[in-house]
Every structure is written in C-alpha cells, then in structure tokens.
Design goal:
Blueprint lengths: L7 E5 L20 E2 L2 E2 H11 L4 E6 L4 H7 L3 H10 L2 H12 L2 E6 L6 H6 L2 H4 L4 E4 L3 E3 L5 H12 L2 E7 L9 E7 L7 E9 L10 E9 L2 H8 L10 H9 L7 E5 L4 E3 L3 H14 L4 H13 L2
Parallel strand pairs: 1-4, 1-6, 4-5, 8-12
Antiparallel strand pairs: 2-3, 6-11, 7-13, 8-11, 9-10, 10-12
Helix pairs in contact: 3-4, 8-9, 10-11
The structure holds 1-O-phosphono-alpha-D-glucopyranose (G1P).
The site of 1-O-phosphono-alpha-D-glucopyranose has 15 residues, from strand 11 and helix 9.
C-alpha cells in the first residue's frame, strides 16, 4: 500500500450540540437518531462504503456513548442469540463490524481546524478523509468515493462544494473556482476560500459541504494557522493556504449535485428524518400514506 492510498477517515465529534438542548444535555448530538440509526453510524457507513475502514473520531467530554455504540454489546448479543432474533442481532452487530474505530480527545473547543490537527499522529503522512457529521450524503450518491478517485488522479486535497442560495452562503465556507482543462465542468480548481463570508463579500455561491480528502501537508499548515472567524482555528483558512501551494498539490473542488441532508439544526434535522423515513422500504409506504393525509389537514 503506497502512502498515496486513502484508508483513514477522521470524524470531528467534539461539539456540544447546544442547538439540540435539552436532548443533548446528557446525550451526544451524534447519537440523535435519524429514523432509527444514530447520525454518526450513517457517517461511518458512508466512510466504509467508500472503502475507508479506519475511522478516528475526535471527541471530548461526555462522548462515551459513541464508544459504546461502536463497541460490542455482549449482554445484548447473548440475549438476542438465545432468542434466535437474528435480525436484531445483525442490527446490534452492524455498527461494530463497519470499521476499526479509534478515538482521540480534542480537549479544548478550538475549532474544526484544531480538531483535524488532533488527528495528525493517528493519520501520519497519508492523505485522509474528513467527514462532518452534520452533513449526510445519500448512499446512492457516492461523493466520497469520487473525491478519493480525484485525489488519486490529481493529488493534493479535494473538497466538496454545493451551490446554495445567496442568503445561505454566510453559513458555510465559500470557494472561488476556475474550470480545469480536460475535466468535467463539476471538477474545478479552487483559487480562493473564505469562511462564512457575508453575502455581499462571497466570491461565489459555492459552499463547502462536510466532505474533504486532505493531503497530509494540511497538518503543517494547521499548526501555523491563527484563530480566524469566531476566534476558532478554521480548516477553511488552512485550505486557503493549500489552494495557493502547488507544492502541496493545490485544492480541487467537486461540485456535488446529489442528495444531501443537513442535520445541524432542528428544522433541517426534521426534514432529513422525514425524507429518509419516506424512502425506507420497511417504513416508507405506511409513513408516506400517513404523511399525505396529515399534510391535508394542515
Ligand atoms: C464547517 C466549516 C465550513 C463548512 C461547514 C459545512 O462549519 O467550517 O467551512 O462550510 O462546516 O457543513 P460549521 O457548520 O461547523 O459551522
């Protein structure tokens, strides 16, 4: 295996989840269920489907339930086995079998860039993926796999971009891009990046969504990155440095036009749960039938 192969995923999961209080007073926000599966499991499933089976979670205090969720649950397994309940046994084992999951603590909430820097020792000198848990990508749209392929062919770092309305760009990192000769028009050179610009100052309507494939050169840059927007060490600021560093391979953007579900605030979380429930083979038909009649009463 060459050091150019992407095998590791980093999932920042140290946030306090204050937007979901009181649910997140004693439960990590990553454990909130999307229908019946914790959001974090869906993210690990996505990493595993893209071929990444080494996952590092960057956690903090009160995140023990994450470790329990990805560990064996011996008592439960013995009970379900004795009952012959194979279907539920599979559900219990699934999260354990997905990947080899490791943990490191962030210690202080110093921003996304700092969380990624906490992964340096585990990742070493290899390109790696970063998946942000607030963004869910539909399993039918293999964005991460495409990004890994682009890293293999073009080197450097790769970020996922999505067109958003002008009044939403202040919620995201924003990219100025240029076409790349010979590539599909959705694969672009990133020229400039700015974290959460006011609409009037945004260089485009292209927002960074929470999937990255990063060159290990990002660690050296993050070590030197000063706190930026919100007083936090921003990953976007480090990527801005890499975008203008041909030595580190630059930054390629992939404009994603597939299905993304945001679980970062209450309204979008509810929308994500409804959309994903409606698509489920087991629950979807009954749920959709009920939903239609419910909507008609509004
Ligand atoms: C982070 C990044 C931002 C990116 C966003 C995607 O912001 O800093 O550049 O656009 O994730 O979800 P956060 O949503 O954590 O504030």
């Amino acid at each position: 295996m060459t050091s150019n192969t992407v095998t590791k995923a980093v999932i920042p999961a140290a946030g306090l989840g204050t937007r979901f209080l009181p649910a997140t007073k004693a439960t990590p926000k990553e454990m909130l269920p999307v229908v019946d599966t914790p959001a974090i499991q869906l993210v690990v499933e996505e990493a595993a489907s893209a071929g990444l089976t080494d996952v590092l979670m960057v956690t903090g205090r009160n995140k023990r339930p994450l470790e329990d969720h990805f560990d064996r649950a011996a008592e439960l397994e013995v009970l379900l086995e004795a009952k012959g309940d194979v279907a539920r046994l599979d559900l219990v084992r699934r999260s354990t079998d997905l990947a080899s999951v490791h943990y490191v603590r962030q210690g202080e909430p110093r921003g996304l860039g700092h969380a990624v820097l906490c992964a340096a020792a585990h990742v070493g000198d290899q390109p790696f993926a970063v998946l942000l848990g607030d963004d869910l990508i539909d399993e039918r749209d293999p964005l991460l796999k495409q990004m890994i392929d682009i890293r293999h062919s073009r080197g450097g770092s790769v970020i996922a971009l999505m067109e958003v309305p002008a009044d939403q760009i202040h919620l995201y990192g924003c990219a100025a891009v240029a076409p790349i000769a010979g590539e599909h028009s959705d694969i672009v050179q990133v020229l400039d990046l700015v974290e959460k610009p006011p609409a009037a100052e945004a260089p485009s309507n292209l927002a960074i969504i929470g999937r990255y494939v990063l060159d290990p050169a990002v660690f050296g840059v993050l070590e030197r990155t000063e706190p930026g927007r919100g007083g936090e060490i921003q990953l976007t600021d480090a990527l801005q440095v890499l975008a203008s560093s041909p030595d580190a391979g630059g930054v390629t953007g992939v404009i994603f036009r597939g299905r993304r579900y945001d679980t970062g605030d209450r309204l979008s979380y509810l929308q994500a749960v409804v959309q994903l429930a409606a698509q489920r083979e087991d629950l979807g038909p009954d749920f959709t039938k009920w939903l239609k009649s419910f909507v008609a009463t509004l």
